[in-house]
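User:
Can I borrow your eye for a moment on a structure tokenisation matter? Would you put together a sequence-and-structure record for a protein of your own picking? Please set it down just below, with no commentary around it:
AI:
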Amino acid sequence: MSRKVRLGIVGFGNQGSQYARLIEEGRVPNVELAAITDTDSARREQIAEKYPDVARFEDYVAMLESGAVEAVVTTVPHYLHPQMGIQALERGIHVLVEKPAGVYTKQVRELNEFAASKPGLTFAIMFNQRTNPLYRRLKEIVDSGEIGAIRRTNWIITTWYRPQAYYDSSAWRATWGGEGGGVLVNQAPHQLDLWQWICGVPQRVFAKAGYGFRRNIAVEDEVVAVVDYGDGATGTFTTATHELVGTDRFEITGDRGKIVVTDSKTAVVTRFRAPEQEINAGIPPEDVWRMTSDQFNPDDYYTQETLEFDTAWGGQHAAVLENFAANILDGTPLIASGSDGILGVRLANAIHLSSWTGKEVPIDFDEDEFLAELNKKIAEEGKFPQRG
């Protein structure tokens, strides 16, 4: 039998329990569930009942030092990911952090720098949407230049409906000091990652956000952000948790084509027969009327392809776990290096900072300014200690 990675799961909530089940069902063939840590005694009783042969711990560091595990996945509140990642790495334990990598870039940068000092250890992040065959194909199309240089991007992702009962389910949820934000740090990190992974990192951000707009919470439940990529290219990102009937529509417009994705399932890829500026220059005045009449023939100007892929529920998470273990075992390249986690956190921070100050901010904003503003929010909230 081939060797399996002995994995420890930190936190037996929604995500941690899902990962345990995927492993026990054999959907991650190169991983052995070796230990689970949770500070809640009731959850440890659940672990004992469901997984009697798996080691249980109340204390995370005790698990790291027990010799029971060689790798961990952290499924805990966002602020703890960098701290726990460093604690594992300094003990020679491989780390897969859940998204987001942290709440603010200064803490994530510390994790990245420490991980870089341990090149023999695997450091990854659970960006499971990067395994989605639809988005992988779209990245190939954009990277290959098939739709040319990007001119505009738009993503409306408002399918995160959450009632007030959801926010009231935990004292840390939807708080500045406990969770670090709302929809940007909880629901939308995968889209923030995919947006940049496929379209590139913007240079500047301007944003408006609603804090407790339609829910009794302190953090954001609606966001509209406008980004500037440079060279005239722009993008918008709209997200919310209060739309009963939400929308998931992602558009990428290039100078040689366009991609439109609906419901993260179907994409229509349009490829122009020539760059748009050449098409524009080649249309004589006498043919302009054809563009708005029934004599318009789209085949003269472009082709279209529809892409659709099916993925099994839980399969994407299992794929990241399997890839993480494969990197440990034989050096298989990671789907998402842990160091990539700072990109989504940085964009979320820039969106927050812009909305707080009412100004456009560069993507390489002042990290101390952001942390100071975040700590003001935490102090006003009065529930948790300030960060730093």
Observations:
- DSSP finds twelve helices and 15 strands in the chain.
- The chain has a mean pLDDT of 96.
- The first strand starts at residue 5 and ends at 10.
